[in-house]
Amino acid sequence: MLIISTLLAGCSQELSPKHPRAVEGMLDLSEWRFDQDLIGLDGQWEFYWNQLLEPSDLKVTEISRTGYIEIPGSWNHYQLNDMELPGAGYATYRLIIKTGEKERLALKIPRIFTAYKLWVNDELIASSGIVGQNRESMAPQYLPQLAFFAAQKGENEIILQVSNFYHRSGGILERLILGSEELVLNLRYKNMAYELILFGCIMIIGAYHIALFFFRRQNRSTLYFGLFCIFIGIRTLLVGERLFIYLFPGFNWEVAHKMQTLTFYLGVPLIVMFFKFVFPKDISEKFVRFIIIIGLVFGGLVLLTPARIFTTFNPIYQIVALIVIIYLTYIFFKKLFKKDKNIGLIVAGGLALFITSLNDIIFLSIWLNDNGSTLLRSIFRTGNLSSIGQMIFVFTISIVLAKQFSEAMEKEEVMTMQLKEMNLNLDQVVKQRTKALEESKEKIEHQKLELEKTNQALQLLSLKDPLTNLWNRRKFDEIIENEWNRCFRNRKSISVMILDIDLFKGYNDRYGHLAGDECLIQVAKAIANSFKRASDLVARYGGEEFVVIMPECKKDEAIKMALLLCEKIEGLKIPYGDSSLSKYVTVSIGVTSKIPDSNSSPTDLILLADKALYQAKNAGRNQIKFLAE
Fold it and tell me: What is the pLDDT of residue 414?
Protein backbone atom coordinates (compact mmCIF):
# COMPACT_ATOMS: atom_id res chain seq x y z
CA MET A 1 0.00 0.00 0.00
CA LEU A 2 2.97 2.31 0.63
CA ILE A 3 4.24 1.68 -2.92
CA ILE A 4 0.75 2.30 -4.35
CA SER A 5 0.39 5.56 -2.43
CA THR A 6 3.81 6.75 -3.62
CA LEU A 7 3.02 5.97 -7.23
CA LEU A 8 -0.38 7.66 -7.11
CA ALA A 9 1.14 10.73 -5.47
CA GLY A 10 3.35 11.13 -8.53
CA CYS A 11 0.43 11.07 -10.94
CA SER A 12 -0.72 14.67 -10.37
CA GLN A 13 0.00 17.34 -12.92
CA GLU A 14 2.56 19.05 -10.67
CA LEU A 15 0.50 22.21 -10.14
CA SER A 16 1.18 24.55 -7.26
CA PRO A 17 -1.26 23.79 -4.40
CA LYS A 18 -1.88 27.51 -3.85
CA HIS A 19 -2.70 29.24 -7.09
CA PRO A 20 -5.02 32.09 -8.07
CA ARG A 21 -8.40 31.42 -9.64
CA ALA A 22 -10.18 33.42 -12.30
CA VAL A 23 -12.91 35.71 -11.01
CA GLU A 24 -15.48 37.09 -13.48
CA GLY A 25 -13.26 36.43 -16.46
CA MET A 26 -10.07 37.89 -14.95
CA LEU A 27 -7.02 35.98 -13.66
CA ASP A 28 -4.26 38.07 -12.08
CA LEU A 29 -0.88 36.33 -12.51
CA SER A 30 1.28 39.45 -12.38
CA GLU A 31 3.18 38.04 -9.37
CA TRP A 32 3.35 34.48 -10.67
CA ARG A 33 6.75 32.88 -11.47
CA PHE A 34 6.03 30.89 -14.63
CA ASP A 35 9.55 29.47 -14.69
CA GLN A 36 9.00 27.85 -11.28
CA ASP A 37 5.37 26.65 -11.21
CA LEU A 38 2.63 25.53 -13.54
CA ILE A 39 -0.86 26.92 -13.00
CA GLY A 40 -4.31 25.74 -14.01
CA LEU A 41 -6.57 28.33 -15.62
CA ASP A 42 -9.44 27.42 -13.30
CA GLY A 43 -12.29 29.62 -12.22
CA GLN A 44 -14.92 31.84 -13.82
CA TRP A 45 -14.56 32.45 -17.56
CA GLU A 46 -16.75 34.76 -19.60
CA PHE A 47 -19.38 32.69 -21.42
CA TYR A 48 -21.15 33.50 -24.68
CA TRP A 49 -23.74 30.81 -25.46
CA ASN A 50 -24.71 30.08 -29.09
CA GLN A 51 -22.10 32.56 -30.30
CA LEU A 52 -18.88 31.76 -32.15
CA LEU A 53 -16.91 34.94 -31.61
CA GLU A 54 -13.44 35.83 -32.80
CA PRO A 55 -11.13 38.42 -31.16
CA SER A 56 -12.34 41.18 -33.49
CA ASP A 57 -15.97 40.46 -32.59
CA LEU A 58 -15.36 40.83 -28.86
CA LYS A 59 -13.93 44.31 -29.36
CA VAL A 60 -17.46 45.41 -30.26
CA THR A 61 -19.30 46.68 -27.17
CA GLU A 62 -22.69 45.45 -28.40
CA ILE A 63 -21.75 41.80 -27.90
CA SER A 64 -23.98 40.38 -25.16
CA ARG A 65 -22.28 38.14 -22.60
CA THR A 66 -24.36 35.21 -21.35
CA GLY A 67 -22.61 35.19 -17.98
CA TYR A 68 -19.71 33.43 -16.25
CA ILE A 69 -19.07 29.67 -16.20
CA GLU A 70 -16.83 27.57 -13.97
CA ILE A 71 -13.88 25.91 -15.70
CA PRO A 72 -13.20 22.99 -15.71
CA GLY A 73 -16.77 21.75 -16.13
CA SER A 74 -19.37 21.10 -18.83
CA TRP A 75 -21.96 23.62 -19.90
CA ASN A 76 -24.69 21.02 -19.33
CA HIS A 77 -27.21 22.25 -16.74
CA TYR A 78 -25.89 25.84 -16.91
CA GLN A 79 -28.91 27.95 -15.96
CA LEU A 80 -30.00 30.35 -18.71
CA ASN A 81 -33.41 32.06 -18.43
CA ASP A 82 -34.51 29.47 -15.86
CA MET A 83 -33.66 26.66 -18.27
CA GLU A 84 -30.74 24.23 -18.34
CA LEU A 85 -28.45 24.15 -21.37
CA PRO A 86 -28.20 20.85 -23.31
CA GLY A 87 -24.93 19.14 -24.19
CA ALA A 88 -25.35 19.90 -27.91
CA GLY A 89 -24.49 23.44 -28.92
CA TYR A 90 -21.69 25.93 -29.31
CA ALA A 91 -20.22 28.77 -27.28
CA THR A 92 -17.30 31.14 -26.87
CA TYR A 93 -15.18 31.38 -23.70
CA ARG A 94 -13.02 34.38 -22.79
CA LEU A 95 -10.40 34.91 -20.08
CA ILE A 96 -8.13 37.88 -19.42
CA ILE A 97 -4.75 37.01 -17.84
CA LYS A 98 -2.57 39.67 -16.27
CA THR A 99 1.18 38.98 -16.41
CA GLY A 100 4.02 40.93 -14.88
CA GLU A 101 6.39 40.93 -17.83
CA LYS A 102 6.88 39.87 -21.44
CA GLU A 103 7.90 36.22 -21.77
CA ARG A 104 7.36 33.10 -23.82
CA LEU A 105 4.66 30.87 -22.31
CA ALA A 106 2.99 27.61 -23.23
CA LEU A 107 -0.52 26.21 -22.79
CA LYS A 108 -1.16 22.52 -22.25
CA ILE A 109 -4.59 22.00 -23.78
CA PRO A 110 -6.57 18.86 -22.79
CA ARG A 111 -9.31 17.19 -24.81
CA ILE A 112 -12.20 19.63 -25.24
CA PHE A 113 -15.71 18.43 -26.06
CA THR A 114 -15.58 18.08 -28.98
CA ALA A 115 -13.99 20.70 -31.29
CA TYR A 116 -12.35 24.04 -30.57
CA LYS A 117 -10.32 27.01 -31.82
CA LEU A 118 -8.12 29.00 -29.42
CA TRP A 119 -6.73 32.52 -29.79
CA VAL A 120 -4.25 34.34 -27.56
CA ASN A 121 -3.81 38.06 -28.09
CA ASP A 122 -5.65 37.95 -31.46
CA GLU A 123 -3.45 35.09 -32.75
CA LEU A 124 -4.94 31.67 -33.51
CA ILE A 125 -2.51 29.26 -31.83
CA ALA A 126 -4.41 25.95 -31.58
CA SER A 127 -7.42 24.09 -32.93
CA SER A 128 -8.88 20.60 -32.92
CA GLY A 129 -11.57 19.28 -35.21
CA ILE A 130 -13.85 21.71 -37.05
CA VAL A 131 -15.96 24.15 -35.07
CA GLY A 132 -19.50 24.50 -36.43
CA GLN A 133 -23.01 25.60 -35.52
CA ASN A 134 -24.62 22.20 -36.23
CA ARG A 135 -23.73 18.53 -36.50
CA GLU A 136 -23.27 18.71 -40.27
CA SER A 137 -20.82 21.64 -40.23
CA MET A 138 -18.55 20.45 -37.39
CA ALA A 139 -16.07 17.60 -37.05
CA PRO A 140 -15.13 16.26 -33.57
CA GLN A 141 -11.58 15.46 -32.47
CA TYR A 142 -9.81 14.79 -29.17
CA LEU A 143 -6.26 16.12 -29.54
CA PRO A 144 -4.40 17.13 -26.36
CA GLN A 145 -1.67 19.49 -27.50
CA LEU A 146 0.72 22.28 -26.56
CA ALA A 147 0.44 25.84 -27.83
CA PHE A 148 3.14 28.48 -27.47
CA PHE A 149 2.73 32.26 -27.44
CA ALA A 150 4.45 35.48 -26.43
CA ALA A 151 2.77 36.95 -23.35
CA GLN A 152 2.72 40.72 -23.17
CA LYS A 153 3.08 42.70 -19.98
CA GLY A 154 -0.33 43.46 -18.54
CA GLU A 155 -3.51 41.96 -20.00
CA ASN A 156 -3.47 38.92 -22.28
CA GLU A 157 -6.71 37.75 -23.88
CA ILE A 158 -7.61 34.07 -24.33
CA ILE A 159 -10.62 33.34 -26.56
CA LEU A 160 -11.84 29.77 -27.02
CA GLN A 161 -14.58 28.69 -29.43
CA VAL A 162 -16.13 25.29 -28.58
CA SER A 163 -18.81 23.32 -30.40
CA ASN A 164 -20.29 19.91 -29.59
CA PHE A 165 -22.97 17.89 -31.34
CA TYR A 166 -21.46 14.42 -30.86
CA HIS A 167 -21.10 13.89 -27.09
CA ARG A 168 -23.65 14.17 -24.29
CA SER A 169 -21.37 16.66 -22.48
CA GLY A 170 -20.13 19.91 -23.99
CA GLY A 171 -17.46 22.37 -22.94
CA ILE A 172 -14.10 22.25 -21.14
CA LEU A 173 -14.16 19.30 -18.73
CA GLU A 174 -10.44 19.29 -17.90
CA ARG A 175 -8.12 22.12 -16.83
CA LEU A 176 -5.90 24.12 -19.16
CA ILE A 177 -2.37 24.41 -17.77
CA LEU A 178 -0.15 27.49 -18.22
CA GLY A 179 3.56 27.81 -17.60
CA SER A 180 6.96 28.39 -19.13
CA GLU A 181 7.78 26.50 -22.30
CA GLU A 182 10.30 24.33 -20.44
CA LEU A 183 7.94 23.32 -17.62
CA VAL A 184 5.01 22.59 -19.93
CA LEU A 185 7.18 20.59 -22.34
CA ASN A 186 8.64 18.61 -19.42
CA LEU A 187 5.13 17.81 -18.21
CA ARG A 188 4.11 16.68 -21.68
CA TYR A 189 7.20 14.49 -22.12
CA LYS A 190 6.84 12.94 -18.65
CA ASN A 191 3.20 12.07 -19.31
CA MET A 192 4.02 10.59 -22.71
CA ALA A 193 6.92 8.53 -21.33
CA TYR A 194 4.75 7.35 -18.44
CA GLU A 195 1.96 6.23 -20.76
CA LEU A 196 4.32 4.56 -23.25
CA ILE A 197 5.99 2.58 -20.46
CA LEU A 198 2.57 1.49 -19.18
CA PHE A 199 1.45 0.54 -22.68
CA GLY A 200 4.58 -1.47 -23.43
CA CYS A 201 4.61 -3.32 -20.10
CA ILE A 202 0.90 -4.15 -20.11
CA MET A 203 0.81 -5.27 -23.77
CA ILE A 204 3.85 -7.53 -23.32
CA ILE A 205 2.36 -9.13 -20.21
CA GLY A 206 -0.98 -9.56 -22.00
CA ALA A 207 0.57 -11.15 -25.09
CA TYR A 208 2.64 -13.47 -22.89
CA HIS A 209 -0.36 -14.78 -20.95
CA ILE A 210 -2.48 -15.25 -24.08
CA ALA A 211 0.36 -17.27 -25.60
CA LEU A 212 0.59 -19.21 -22.33
CA PHE A 213 -3.09 -20.09 -22.60
CA PHE A 214 -2.57 -21.75 -26.00
CA PHE A 215 0.02 -24.02 -24.40
CA ARG A 216 -2.09 -24.72 -21.29
CA ARG A 217 -5.71 -24.42 -22.43
CA GLN A 218 -7.08 -25.97 -19.25
CA ASN A 219 -6.08 -22.81 -17.33
CA ARG A 220 -8.49 -20.20 -18.72
CA SER A 221 -7.44 -17.59 -16.15
CA THR A 222 -4.40 -16.76 -18.32
CA LEU A 223 -6.72 -16.09 -21.29
CA TYR A 224 -9.02 -13.75 -19.32
CA PHE A 225 -6.06 -12.02 -17.74
CA GLY A 226 -4.22 -11.64 -21.08
CA LEU A 227 -7.28 -10.20 -22.84
CA PHE A 228 -7.83 -7.78 -19.96
CA CYS A 229 -4.22 -6.61 -20.31
CA ILE A 230 -4.62 -6.10 -24.07
CA PHE A 231 -7.80 -4.06 -23.54
CA ILE A 232 -6.26 -1.76 -20.92
CA GLY A 233 -3.11 -1.46 -23.04
CA ILE A 234 -5.20 -0.18 -25.95
CA ARG A 235 -7.10 2.10 -23.59
CA THR A 236 -3.81 3.61 -22.37
CA LEU A 237 -3.18 5.00 -25.87
CA LEU A 238 -6.69 6.46 -26.06
CA VAL A 239 -6.77 8.36 -22.75
CA GLY A 240 -4.52 10.91 -21.05
CA GLU A 241 -2.17 12.33 -23.69
CA ARG A 242 -4.05 10.25 -26.30
CA LEU A 243 -0.90 9.10 -28.07
CA PHE A 244 -2.97 7.14 -30.59
CA ILE A 245 -4.62 10.35 -31.84
CA TYR A 246 -1.25 12.11 -31.75
CA LEU A 247 0.15 9.43 -34.08
CA PHE A 248 -3.00 9.31 -36.25
CA PRO A 249 -4.59 12.80 -36.02
CA GLY A 250 -7.01 12.05 -38.86
CA PHE A 251 -8.43 8.96 -37.18
CA ASN A 252 -12.23 8.93 -36.98
CA TRP A 253 -13.41 10.42 -33.67
CA GLU A 254 -16.45 8.14 -33.37
CA VAL A 255 -14.38 4.99 -33.90
CA ALA A 256 -11.72 6.11 -31.38
CA HIS A 257 -14.42 6.93 -28.80
CA LYS A 258 -16.07 3.54 -29.38
CA MET A 259 -12.72 1.76 -28.92
CA GLN A 260 -12.05 3.61 -25.67
CA THR A 261 -15.53 2.88 -24.30
CA LEU A 262 -15.47 -0.79 -25.38
CA THR A 263 -12.23 -1.42 -23.49
CA PHE A 264 -14.06 -0.32 -20.33
CA TYR A 265 -17.35 -2.12 -21.05
CA LEU A 266 -15.67 -5.44 -21.94
CA GLY A 267 -12.88 -5.16 -19.39
CA VAL A 268 -15.33 -5.40 -16.46
CA PRO A 269 -16.75 -8.85 -17.47
CA LEU A 270 -13.23 -10.10 -18.20
CA ILE A 271 -11.97 -9.22 -14.73
CA VAL A 272 -15.04 -10.84 -13.16
CA MET A 273 -14.47 -14.04 -15.17
CA PHE A 274 -10.82 -14.02 -14.14
CA PHE A 275 -11.63 -13.82 -10.43
CA LYS A 276 -14.34 -16.45 -10.88
CA PHE A 277 -11.63 -18.81 -12.10
CA VAL A 278 -9.30 -17.80 -9.23
CA PHE A 279 -12.04 -18.07 -6.55
CA PRO A 280 -14.47 -20.59 -8.09
CA LYS A 281 -16.30 -21.38 -4.83
CA ASP A 282 -16.67 -17.80 -3.59
CA ILE A 283 -18.04 -15.90 -6.60
CA SER A 284 -21.63 -16.58 -7.67
CA GLU A 285 -22.15 -18.08 -11.12
CA LYS A 286 -25.33 -16.02 -11.51
CA PHE A 287 -23.45 -12.82 -10.72
CA VAL A 288 -20.83 -13.66 -13.36
CA ARG A 289 -23.53 -14.40 -15.96
CA PHE A 290 -25.33 -11.15 -15.12
CA ILE A 291 -22.15 -9.05 -15.57
CA ILE A 292 -21.31 -10.78 -18.87
CA ILE A 293 -24.80 -10.09 -20.25
CA ILE A 294 -24.67 -6.45 -19.10
CA GLY A 295 -21.21 -6.01 -20.66
CA LEU A 296 -22.33 -7.51 -23.99
CA VAL A 297 -25.53 -5.43 -24.06
CA PHE A 298 -23.66 -2.18 -23.41
CA GLY A 299 -20.91 -3.22 -25.85
CA GLY A 300 -23.57 -3.78 -28.52
CA LEU A 301 -25.01 -0.35 -27.71
CA VAL A 302 -21.60 1.21 -28.34
CA LEU A 303 -21.21 -0.61 -31.66
CA LEU A 304 -24.71 0.19 -32.96
CA THR A 305 -25.24 3.79 -31.80
CA PRO A 306 -23.30 7.07 -32.11
CA ALA A 307 -21.43 8.60 -29.17
CA ARG A 308 -24.12 11.16 -28.39
CA ILE A 309 -26.47 8.25 -27.60
CA PHE A 310 -24.31 5.62 -25.91
CA THR A 311 -22.51 8.18 -23.71
CA THR A 312 -25.83 9.06 -22.06
CA PHE A 313 -25.99 5.47 -20.76
CA ASN A 314 -22.44 5.53 -19.40
CA PRO A 315 -23.52 6.49 -15.83
CA ILE A 316 -25.58 3.29 -15.67
CA TYR A 317 -22.55 1.19 -16.53
CA GLN A 318 -20.44 3.15 -14.05
CA ILE A 319 -22.94 2.07 -11.37
CA VAL A 320 -22.53 -1.54 -12.57
CA ALA A 321 -18.74 -1.15 -12.28
CA LEU A 322 -19.17 0.20 -8.73
CA ILE A 323 -21.28 -2.85 -7.83
CA VAL A 324 -18.55 -5.13 -9.22
CA ILE A 325 -15.87 -3.26 -7.23
CA ILE A 326 -17.86 -3.52 -3.98
CA TYR A 327 -18.66 -7.21 -4.54
CA LEU A 328 -15.08 -8.21 -5.39
CA THR A 329 -13.70 -6.15 -2.49
CA TYR A 330 -16.00 -8.09 -0.18
CA ILE A 331 -14.66 -11.36 -1.62
CA PHE A 332 -11.07 -10.14 -1.17
CA PHE A 333 -11.45 -9.37 2.53
CA LYS A 334 -13.36 -12.61 3.05
CA LYS A 335 -10.43 -14.56 1.58
CA LEU A 336 -7.95 -12.36 3.43
CA PHE A 337 -9.40 -13.33 6.80
CA LYS A 338 -9.16 -16.98 5.78
CA LYS A 339 -5.47 -16.39 4.96
CA ASP A 340 -5.69 -18.15 1.61
CA LYS A 341 -2.56 -18.76 -0.38
CA ASN A 342 -1.25 -15.74 -2.38
CA ILE A 343 -4.25 -13.69 -1.23
CA GLY A 344 -2.04 -10.79 -0.06
CA LEU A 345 -0.73 -10.06 -3.56
CA ILE A 346 -4.17 -10.46 -5.12
CA VAL A 347 -5.78 -8.08 -2.62
CA ALA A 348 -2.99 -5.48 -3.04
CA GLY A 349 -3.31 -5.53 -6.83
CA GLY A 350 -7.11 -5.63 -6.76
CA LEU A 351 -7.39 -2.70 -4.33
CA ALA A 352 -4.98 -0.63 -6.43
CA LEU A 353 -7.16 -1.30 -9.47
CA PHE A 354 -10.42 -0.56 -7.63
CA ILE A 355 -9.25 2.62 -5.86
CA THR A 356 -7.88 4.19 -9.05
CA SER A 357 -10.92 3.07 -11.03
CA LEU A 358 -13.19 4.71 -8.45
CA ASN A 359 -11.21 7.93 -8.87
CA ASP A 360 -11.69 7.82 -12.65
CA ILE A 361 -15.39 6.96 -12.40
CA ILE A 362 -15.98 9.95 -10.11
CA PHE A 363 -13.72 12.29 -12.09
CA LEU A 364 -15.41 11.41 -15.40
CA SER A 365 -18.92 11.21 -13.97
CA ILE A 366 -21.72 13.38 -15.33
CA TRP A 367 -22.49 14.53 -11.78
CA LEU A 368 -19.00 15.92 -11.18
CA ASN A 369 -18.64 17.45 -14.65
CA ASP A 370 -22.08 19.11 -14.59
CA ASN A 371 -22.54 19.98 -10.91
CA GLY A 372 -19.25 19.21 -9.12
CA SER A 373 -18.11 21.68 -6.51
CA THR A 374 -14.69 23.34 -6.39
CA LEU A 375 -13.88 21.32 -3.25
CA LEU A 376 -14.55 17.99 -4.98
CA ARG A 377 -12.53 19.03 -8.01
CA SER A 378 -9.62 19.84 -5.69
CA ILE A 379 -9.82 16.23 -4.43
CA PHE A 380 -10.39 14.52 -7.79
CA ARG A 381 -7.92 16.62 -9.75
CA THR A 382 -7.06 14.25 -12.58
CA GLY A 383 -8.46 11.28 -14.43
CA ASN A 384 -6.77 8.20 -15.92
CA LEU A 385 -5.27 7.13 -12.58
CA SER A 386 -6.70 3.72 -13.36
CA SER A 387 -3.80 3.19 -15.79
CA ILE A 388 -1.29 3.00 -12.92
CA GLY A 389 -3.77 0.96 -10.87
CA GLN A 390 -4.11 -1.44 -13.78
CA MET A 391 -0.33 -1.69 -14.04
CA ILE A 392 -0.01 -2.54 -10.34
CA PHE A 393 -2.82 -5.07 -10.68
CA VAL A 394 -1.25 -6.65 -13.78
CA PHE A 395 2.13 -6.85 -12.04
CA THR A 396 0.85 -8.45 -8.85
CA ILE A 397 -1.39 -10.93 -10.67
CA SER A 398 1.54 -11.82 -12.95
CA ILE A 399 3.56 -12.66 -9.84
CA VAL A 400 0.71 -14.85 -8.54
CA LEU A 401 0.40 -16.70 -11.85
CA ALA A 402 4.19 -17.06 -12.02
CA LYS A 403 4.21 -18.55 -8.51
CA GLN A 404 1.50 -21.02 -9.53
CA PHE A 405 3.47 -22.13 -12.57
CA SER A 406 6.64 -22.27 -10.48
CA GLU A 407 4.93 -24.52 -7.96
CA ALA A 408 3.69 -26.72 -10.77
CA MET A 409 7.24 -26.92 -12.09
CA GLU A 410 8.55 -27.84 -8.64
CA LYS A 411 6.04 -30.71 -8.48
CA GLU A 412 7.20 -31.88 -11.88
CA GLU A 413 10.81 -31.75 -10.66
CA VAL A 414 9.94 -33.94 -7.67
CA MET A 415 8.22 -36.47 -9.93
CA THR A 416 11.22 -36.38 -12.24
CA MET A 417 13.57 -37.20 -9.39
CA GLN A 418 11.42 -40.16 -8.45
CA LEU A 419 11.41 -41.41 -12.02
CA LYS A 420 15.18 -41.03 -12.15
CA GLU A 421 15.58 -43.30 -9.17
CA MET A 422 13.31 -45.90 -10.82
CA ASN A 423 14.90 -45.72 -14.25
CA LEU A 424 18.58 -45.02 -13.64
CA ASN A 425 19.81 -46.65 -16.82
CA LEU A 426 17.19 -44.95 -18.92
CA ASP A 427 18.11 -41.68 -17.26
CA GLN A 428 21.73 -42.05 -18.33
CA VAL A 429 20.63 -42.44 -21.94
CA VAL A 430 18.37 -39.43 -21.62
CA LYS A 431 21.26 -37.41 -20.15
CA GLN A 432 23.52 -38.28 -23.04
CA ARG A 433 20.90 -37.34 -25.60
CA THR A 434 20.01 -34.18 -23.68
CA LYS A 435 23.67 -33.18 -23.56
CA ALA A 436 23.97 -33.72 -27.30
CA LEU A 437 20.87 -31.64 -27.88
CA GLU A 438 22.17 -28.87 -25.62
CA GLU A 439 25.49 -28.81 -27.46
CA SER A 440 23.65 -28.70 -30.74
CA LYS A 441 21.42 -25.94 -29.42
CA GLU A 442 24.43 -23.93 -28.23
CA LYS A 443 26.02 -24.30 -31.65
CA ILE A 444 22.84 -23.15 -33.37
CA GLU A 445 22.52 -20.21 -30.99
CA HIS A 446 26.13 -19.22 -31.69
CA GLN A 447 25.56 -19.43 -35.44
CA LYS A 448 22.36 -17.42 -35.05
CA LEU A 449 24.22 -14.74 -33.07
CA GLU A 450 26.96 -14.53 -35.69
CA LEU A 451 24.34 -14.26 -38.44
CA GLU A 452 22.59 -11.42 -36.58
CA LYS A 453 25.91 -9.57 -36.22
CA THR A 454 26.59 -10.02 -39.93
CA ASN A 455 23.13 -8.76 -40.85
CA GLN A 456 23.59 -5.69 -38.64
CA ALA A 457 26.94 -4.96 -40.27
CA LEU A 458 25.40 -5.35 -43.74
CA GLN A 459 22.53 -3.05 -42.77
CA LEU A 460 25.03 -0.38 -41.66
CA LEU A 461 27.10 -0.84 -44.83
CA SER A 462 23.99 -0.35 -46.97
CA LEU A 463 23.62 3.15 -45.49
CA LYS A 464 27.30 4.19 -45.61
CA ASP A 465 29.42 5.45 -48.49
CA PRO A 466 32.36 3.00 -48.63
CA LEU A 467 34.94 5.61 -49.74
CA THR A 468 34.25 8.56 -47.42
CA ASN A 469 32.48 6.64 -44.61
CA LEU A 470 29.71 9.30 -44.73
CA TRP A 471 26.02 8.46 -44.92
CA ASN A 472 24.85 7.72 -48.46
CA ARG A 473 21.92 8.98 -50.57
CA ARG A 474 19.59 6.27 -49.19
CA LYS A 475 20.17 7.41 -45.59
CA PHE A 476 19.80 11.06 -46.64
CA ASP A 477 16.39 10.41 -48.25
CA GLU A 478 15.19 8.74 -45.05
CA ILE A 479 16.44 11.46 -42.66
CA ILE A 480 15.32 14.49 -44.72
CA GLU A 481 11.72 13.17 -44.65
CA ASN A 482 11.80 12.63 -40.87
CA GLU A 483 13.42 15.99 -40.06
CA TRP A 484 11.04 17.82 -42.42
CA ASN A 485 8.03 16.33 -40.60
CA ARG A 486 9.51 17.12 -37.17
CA CYS A 487 10.20 20.76 -38.10
CA PHE A 488 6.72 20.97 -39.62
CA ARG A 489 5.15 19.87 -36.33
CA ASN A 490 7.31 22.21 -34.25
CA ARG A 491 7.16 25.15 -36.71
CA LYS A 492 10.97 25.26 -36.84
CA SER A 493 13.23 26.19 -39.75
CA ILE A 494 15.23 23.51 -41.61
CA SER A 495 18.28 24.30 -43.76
CA VAL A 496 20.04 22.27 -46.46
CA MET A 497 23.35 22.90 -48.24
CA ILE A 498 24.73 21.08 -51.29
CA LEU A 499 28.51 21.24 -51.92
CA ASP A 500 30.35 20.51 -55.14
CA ILE A 501 34.14 20.27 -55.48
CA ASP A 502 35.10 22.82 -58.15
CA LEU A 503 36.48 21.43 -61.43
CA PHE A 504 36.89 17.96 -59.95
CA LYS A 505 37.00 16.21 -63.32
CA GLY A 506 40.08 18.27 -64.20
CA TYR A 507 41.62 17.33 -60.85
CA ASN A 508 41.13 13.63 -61.65
CA ASP A 509 42.63 14.07 -65.13
CA ARG A 510 45.62 15.95 -63.70
CA TYR A 511 46.44 13.83 -60.63
CA GLY A 512 44.71 10.50 -61.28
CA HIS A 513 41.78 8.74 -59.67
CA LEU A 514 43.68 7.58 -56.58
CA ALA A 515 44.53 11.20 -55.75
CA GLY A 516 40.92 12.10 -56.55
CA ASP A 517 39.69 9.55 -54.03
CA GLU A 518 42.08 10.90 -51.40
CA CYS A 519 40.80 14.42 -52.14
CA LEU A 520 37.19 13.26 -51.63
CA ILE A 521 38.14 11.63 -48.32
CA GLN A 522 39.83 14.79 -46.98
CA VAL A 523 36.94 17.03 -48.05
CA ALA A 524 34.39 14.62 -46.52
CA LYS A 525 36.31 14.54 -43.24
CA ALA A 526 36.44 18.36 -43.13
CA ILE A 527 32.70 18.63 -43.72
CA ALA A 528 31.86 15.98 -41.10
CA ASN A 529 34.09 17.65 -38.48
CA SER A 530 32.32 20.97 -39.04
CA PHE A 531 28.90 19.72 -37.94
CA LYS A 532 28.80 18.47 -34.35
CA ARG A 533 25.08 18.65 -33.53
CA ALA A 534 23.43 15.26 -33.13
CA SER A 535 20.57 16.33 -35.42
CA ASP A 536 22.86 17.41 -38.32
CA LEU A 537 23.51 14.89 -41.09
CA VAL A 538 26.34 14.92 -43.62
CA ALA A 539 26.02 12.62 -46.66
CA ARG A 540 27.71 11.98 -49.96
CA TYR A 541 25.10 12.98 -52.51
CA GLY A 542 26.90 11.47 -55.51
CA GLY A 543 30.27 11.86 -57.27
CA GLU A 544 31.96 14.96 -55.89
CA GLU A 545 28.75 16.34 -54.37
CA PHE A 546 27.96 16.37 -50.65
CA VAL A 547 24.80 17.40 -48.83
CA VAL A 548 24.16 18.60 -45.24
CA ILE A 549 20.82 18.62 -43.38
CA MET A 550 20.59 21.22 -40.57
CA PRO A 551 17.30 20.92 -38.64
CA GLU A 552 16.18 23.93 -36.56
CA CYS A 553 18.81 26.08 -38.29
CA LYS A 554 17.86 29.51 -39.63
CA LYS A 555 19.12 31.35 -42.72
CA ASP A 556 21.91 33.40 -41.08
CA GLU A 557 23.37 30.42 -39.25
CA ALA A 558 23.26 28.26 -42.39
CA ILE A 559 25.05 30.95 -44.47
CA LYS A 560 27.65 31.37 -41.74
CA MET A 561 28.34 27.61 -41.70
CA ALA A 562 28.64 27.56 -45.51
CA LEU A 563 31.17 30.42 -45.52
CA LEU A 564 33.25 28.75 -42.80
CA LEU A 565 33.13 25.49 -44.77
CA CYS A 566 34.41 27.20 -47.95
CA GLU A 567 37.34 28.64 -46.03
CA LYS A 568 38.03 25.39 -44.20
CA ILE A 569 38.19 23.27 -47.38
CA GLU A 570 40.43 25.75 -49.19
CA GLY A 571 42.45 25.83 -45.95
CA LEU A 572 43.17 22.09 -46.37
CA LYS A 573 45.61 23.27 -49.07
CA ILE A 574 45.05 20.31 -51.35
CA PRO A 575 47.22 21.34 -54.36
CA TYR A 576 45.46 21.95 -57.69
CA GLY A 577 48.01 23.47 -60.06
CA ASP A 578 45.78 23.63 -63.14
CA SER A 579 42.82 25.31 -61.43
CA SER A 580 41.74 28.69 -62.77
CA LEU A 581 40.17 29.51 -59.38
CA SER A 582 42.89 28.86 -56.81
CA LYS A 583 46.07 26.92 -56.38
CA TYR A 584 44.16 24.74 -53.92
CA VAL A 585 40.97 22.65 -54.15
CA THR A 586 37.83 24.77 -53.54
CA VAL A 587 34.08 24.15 -53.35
CA SER A 588 30.87 25.84 -54.44
CA ILE A 589 27.91 25.69 -52.05
CA GLY A 590 24.16 26.18 -52.52
CA VAL A 591 22.19 26.94 -49.37
CA THR A 592 18.49 27.21 -48.63
CA SER A 593 16.34 27.46 -45.50
CA LYS A 594 12.62 27.14 -44.93
CA ILE A 595 9.93 26.60 -42.28
CA PRO A 596 7.98 23.58 -43.61
CA ASP A 597 4.33 24.01 -44.49
CA SER A 598 1.57 21.87 -45.97
CA ASN A 599 2.08 23.35 -49.46
CA SER A 600 5.69 22.19 -49.87
CA SER A 601 7.81 19.07 -49.44
CA PRO A 602 11.42 18.02 -48.78
CA THR A 603 11.89 17.70 -52.55
CA ASP A 604 11.17 21.43 -52.95
CA LEU A 605 13.86 22.19 -50.35
CA ILE A 606 16.46 20.05 -52.16
CA LEU A 607 15.63 21.59 -55.52
CA LEU A 608 16.11 25.10 -54.05
CA ALA A 609 19.52 24.14 -52.63
CA ASP A 610 20.51 22.55 -55.96
CA LYS A 611 19.42 25.67 -57.85
CA ALA A 612 21.46 27.82 -55.46
CA LEU A 613 24.49 25.57 -56.15
CA TYR A 614 24.15 26.14 -59.89
CA GLN A 615 23.96 29.88 -59.28
CA ALA A 616 27.22 29.66 -57.31
CA LYS A 617 28.86 27.73 -60.18
CA ASN A 618 27.60 30.15 -62.83
CA ALA A 619 28.83 33.09 -60.76
CA GLY A 620 32.43 31.84 -60.91
CA ARG A 621 32.59 29.00 -58.34
CA ASN A 622 34.53 29.03 -55.02
CA GLN A 623 31.62 30.80 -53.32
CA ILE A 624 28.21 30.26 -51.76
CA LYS A 625 24.73 31.26 -52.87
CA PHE A 626 21.56 31.35 -50.78
CA LEU A 627 18.18 30.87 -52.41
CA ALA A 628 14.72 30.90 -50.81
CA GLU A 629 11.17 30.79 -52.10
Answer: 76
